[in-house]
Design a protein that fits this description.
about 375 residues; mainly alpha; single chain
């Protein structure tokens, strides 16, 4: 809840401190990089020491500390650096709990257990956004960060009390692909790189080339699209309450559709579902392009865009991980999923990093036109695929 509620505040706070579109893009790119490397670092360290509770407690404690620090920074550079450290330590709440979830369920139910874990996390994110919306009329952004730091604090005590330290080793290479969609969607950055693929593993995964190419292009587009939406809304006079409301609609629809799309996959061809999601993402970008040119209708068009983006994410993420699982051999699944998320993370970093500079140099129309082109290009490698 705390991380969800604070997520919208970060770009808005950066802008209020005098930052611009390029600063927001750099902040998001560095946070994605820190999250990716942090997930690898904390996951491997936890596996080597066979300790779980201490790392999860560290993640919970660091959340409260960094949210409180956000409230006292007074310039864009400090906020970017603190957010990067925040993302690195927050990664302990991503990679380490995976092992605890796997330890709690039978191996045949790993997909379900991990999916349920992320679904609950996703709804917690939505509730955090709702708290932010409710309080945004009454308190400042600095006070909101402090409040979310306080909300996060009980998680430290609950974690220390409820998490049992049983040193059971789980080989991450054996983890089957799973649908960690809701929490990833809410953060707009893939954060589940379970381990770093090797050069040999890339050679063995040549059959995934089309899929990886498609998702790399898609995540560049996602970085271009999502990274600058708060900037676009702020520059067009949207209030903090309106931005929260739009974000809640996006997150809630995606969370609700998570199970529905999973059911559809049982009766529909996976690549067809993925292409449907990409077409919906094209429509989402077209809607926000319309908002750029039709400022009088900006609010409904941006809301439509975010709803379509949330709806499309369910199709894209679930079908993508399902395709990886079906294409990979039994011994390849861990490496295939690690490579898949690494490719996605790199695409997000590229898109986010370039987004602000594009906006400042060429404007939002060019920004979202490029995002549209990259999504369109992502469909081409999948045009004749079926599974």
């Amino acid at each position: 809840m705390a991380t969800g509620g604070a997520s919208i505040l970060l770009p808005l706070y950066l802008l209020s401190l005098g930052g611009g579109a390029s600063d927001v893009g750099v902040m998001n790119a560095l946070a994605s990089f820190a999250s990716m490397t942090g997930t690898l670092f904390w996951g491997n360290l936890s596996d080597r020491t066979l300790k779980r509770r201490v790392f999860i407690s560290l993640g919970f404690a660091s959340t409260s500390v960094f949210l409180a620090l956000f409230a006292i920074v007074d310039n864009p550079r400090e906020l970017i650096l603190v957010n990067m450290a925040y993302a690195f330590f927050l990664a302990t709440t991503i990679s380490v709990p995976v092992v605890l979830v796997l330890r709690s369920v039978r191996k045949t139910y790993w997909d379900y257990g991990l999916g349920k874990f992320n679904e609950i996390s996703g709804w917690g994110w939505v509730f955090g956004l709702a708290i932010g919306l409710t309080l945004s009329k009454f308190i400042s952004m600095s006070a909101s960060f402090l409040l979310f730091a306080i909300i996060s604090f009980p998680s430290i005590l609950m974690g220390m009390k409820s998490i049992r330290e049983i040193p059971i080793y789980i080989n991450r290479d054996a983890i089957r692909t799973f649908r960690n969609t809701v929490i990833q969607k809410a953060r707009y950055a893939p954060g589940f790189v379970l381990h770093m693929p090797t050069r040999d593993s890339f050679k063995k995964l040549s059959k995934f080339r089309s899929l990886y190419t498609s998702f790399f292009l898609l995540w560049i587009a996602s970085g271009l699209y999502f990274s600058q939406v708060p900037v676009f809304l702020t520059y067009n006079g949207f209030t903090r309450e309106e931005i929260y409301a739009i974000s809640i609609a996006n997150a809630a629809l995606s969370a609700f559709m998570y199970t529905q799309v999973g059911i559809k996959l049982k009766s529909r061809e996976n690549y067809g579902v993925l292409r449907s999601g990409l077409v919906m993402r094209l429509a989402a970008i077209l809607a926000i392009l319309g908002a750029v040119f039709l400022s009088k209708f900006a609010l409904p068009l941006v809301l439509l865009s975010y709803l379509l983006a949330g709806y499309s994410w369910s199709f894209i993420s679930i079908s993508g991980t399902s395709i990886v699982g079906k294409l990979a051999g039994e011994k390849e699944k861990g490496t295939a999923m690690g490579t898949y998320n690494l490719v996605n993370s790199l695409g997000m970093i590229v898109g986010s990093l370039s987004s602000g500079f594009i906006v400042e140099s060429f404007g939002f129309a060019s920004e979202y036109s490029l995002a549209f082109i990259f999504v369109l290009l992502s469909i081409l490698p999948l045009k004749s695929k079926a599974l």
